[in-house]
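Proteins fold reproducibly. Next comes a concrete instance:

***
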Amino acid sequence: MTRHTNHIRPVDAETKAARRLQAAEGYLQLGLPDYALDELSRVDADGPFEAVRQGLTGEALKAAHRFDEAIPHFRQAIDLIPVALTSPVWKSLSECYAAAGDKAAEEECLATAAKIAGSSSKVEKKLSKLIERMLKKYGPRLAALAKENNLPKLSVVLTFDNPQASGAANVEPNPDQESQEDDPATGSD
C-alpha cells in the first residue's frame, strides 16, 4: 500500500500580496484602518499591486484622519493607475485637501474627478448608441442565424483597446419572426 502525503504548495509572493490587499480592504470596510495599514506595510512596494497598495494606504490613512500622510499615497496611486480609472482616487484626494484646509487643491481635485467621470460617461453613451444601431441593422440576421442553428441566444461582444469602450449584447431569436435576410422587397441589406 502506497502512502500519499499531502503536499502543501508554497504560496507565491503575488498570492500573498493579493491576500494582504484583500485583508486590508476588509479591515477598511470594518472601520479598522490601523489593521489595514499593518497588512499594507507587509506588501512589497515594488510588486505588481503597487497602485492598489498606494490607493488603499491613502484610504487607510484618510480613515485614520491622517490626511497629510494620505496625500502622497493618493498622488502615487494616480500616477500608477490608468487615467480613466482615477476619478475615485481624485475624490478621496480632494477630501484630504478639504480636511487639511486647502480649498484650492480640493476644488482642483474635484474638477479633475468630474472631468474624468464625464469623459467615461460620454464613451459609454457613444458605445450604447453604436450597439443599438448595430442591433437594428444586424439583429434580425443574427436572430435568424441563431434560429437556424437552434441556439437559444447569440451573444455579440465588442472589444476595443480601451476596456471602457467594450460592450456586449444578446440576440434571442423570435420564433414568430421569419428571416427577412437580403429580401429586396423589405429593403433590408
The longest helix spans residues 103-148. The helical segments are 13-29, 33-40, 50-63, 67-80, 87-100, 103-148. The longest strand covers residues 154-158. DSSP finds six helices and two strands in the chain.
